[in-house]
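Forum: Protein Structure Q&A
Topic: Joint prediction for protein chains with partners

I've read a bunch of threads here and the consensus seems to be that you should model interacting components together rather than docking separate models afterwards. I'd like to see that in practice. Below is the full input, 670 residues plus whatever partners are listed. Could one of the regulars post the assembled result?
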Amino acid sequence: MSARVFSRVLLLASSFAAAAGANACGGGREYVRGTDDPGIDQPAMSTGLDKDDVETALQKLLNELREAPIMGEWRARAGQDDKQTVAIAPFINETTEHIDSPLDVMLSETETWLAGSNVVRVVSHERQTDMIREVEGAQHPIFDPRHIPQYGKQLGVKFFITGKVGAADERTAGARRVQYFIFMQVIDTETSEIRWQQKTYLTKALR
Amino acid sequence: MAAKDVFDEGAALNAGVVLRWARAAGVVLALGPAACAGHSEYTLPVRTALDAGDTRGAIRLLDERMKVSAEGDLPADMGSDNALYVLDRGTLQQSILAFDRSKRDLEAADKAIDMLDLSRGAGDSIGEYVFSGSSGRYRAPPYEKLLVNTLDMLNYLELRDLDGARVEARRLAVMQRYIADDLEEGDNAVLGLGGLLAGLVFEKSDQVDEALRWYDQTLAFAGFRALQDPVRSLLPRGHYRSPRLEAIEKSAATTPAAPPDTGEILVVVGYGRVPHKIAHRVPIGLALTWEAGAMSPHDVELANRMAAQGLVTWVNFPTLGREQGAYELPSCTLDGQPLALDLAVDVTHQVRGEWKKIEGKIIVSAITRLLARYAAGTLAGAAAGSDKLLAAVLSIGTQATLAALDVPDTRSWETLPARVAVARVRVPAGKHQLRLRARGATREAEVDVDQGGWAVVSLMALR
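Posted by a regular:
Agreed with the consensus. Here's the joint model:
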């Protein structure tokens, strides 16, 4: 026993001390630029939605919309110099995550894609805040899909593109998993008829 | 002979002894930097500022502790203690009506606490049993997990943001399910308050069945008598029923419809502060009288032998301190008339109840750490060989150093209100003057309620 054993005891004690010190006192951090380290976009940082999730979801949904009959109808009207007016309405968040920012990004991306397609006239969603305030009142200016016909009249649009995101969120002793169900639809504001609808799924987990 | 011994010891002070003494010093140098004060010692200035009514000063102290570059920033590292500081700051921000900042803090801490909880492994438990009670990752007790979402829901309701409040209500439901199914604690009284707020959120979002489900859960707890009438008037609009709701439905011949030209106000008053954990050191003999029954006979015998050593035979473990504001009676007036507040949740009772469940295990783990220190000291002494003085110094030095490093785990969410009282009242549409008072803090608010509208007004007097 002797020095060798004692050294091991010292090593063990020092390791525990170092581990506890690291736990209690924290370590250094640095800011990183995405162009310097492209890999930083790769890992999932939370169970919320990030850039990769938004891109994946929109790729599926907008590719489907491109092929949808309603898009063909809009192209035909555009060919007759009679573009339909479309507005993008907020996505309804029915999840357990505060994902309003990524949903707003999805909205803007969809608006950009539609404007770029040059088959419809797109009403800026910035104007919609005032419109929602007018319809819903100043105390609760929250978008309500049941009032789409009124929004349509206020904005003078024929179609709304909107959607909702639901989630199944489960927590166990060892993991938390959120399964997202993302729906996008085109609604005729005069009849409230759903002219097109598509869905996509995403899953995020902490384990 | 004596002279020879002295001489021998002196002769040993050559290369070999110097090396051994250097090793002894190495133990202290290696372990020394890791020694940190306990959580509740770091937060003492924060609690002192709160006691003096200086909430903004307490927030500044937390910012300094987290070393954030700007006021209210989140720390880059949301590790164990920082997650708790952010939780503390979240409740303090709520108490100064900075609801946007409060929700950002509570949401960041919510994720961090979840991450810490899920990251805990065998290493944390081993560290807690061998090295120090505070060496493992923080595991939030069920009432803290439920209160994160409950208090954040209050932030959204104050801001009249039903979308955000619904997210928090759903998060509360997920955590509630986990606590009921996995931790087998389905009757946590915090759920009464959470259910009251979540019920209001879904009722005002026109999701009547979801609202009824939450209200049904809330009515299982005492302190929600003001909820009977709103639930009775809501029942005809929904399909969800339970024996409790059916009893309410049958208790009146007619269903009172909500009078026209009226709205509702919900008042929430949190007051006092829950007992925080404090470090406690007791002699091994005393600790054994409490917990010997939960230890193996071999460990008890070893611990009894150690009791004779005196200097380093102290057991370090946390215990609960005193709560603040135990005898406080909050008050509320609406347009100059007193409004009765019902005690919705006694958070202190939850804290004490949860502590009772784990206290024995914590003392036993503290005694186990003491035995580990004793074993390490014995090994260190044996390493000195025939050099008795060095052996004694090494043995006692190792034990004393490890004892100093054994920081009792005093981590907890310290700025929770000790109690929360509520009132729900129907008022004519229009402007109303509310005055809430508790623990020397006052909030005066002019509330504008639309026809069929609602408002939530809160006061958190955390002193």
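DSSP finds 18 helices and ten strands in chain B.
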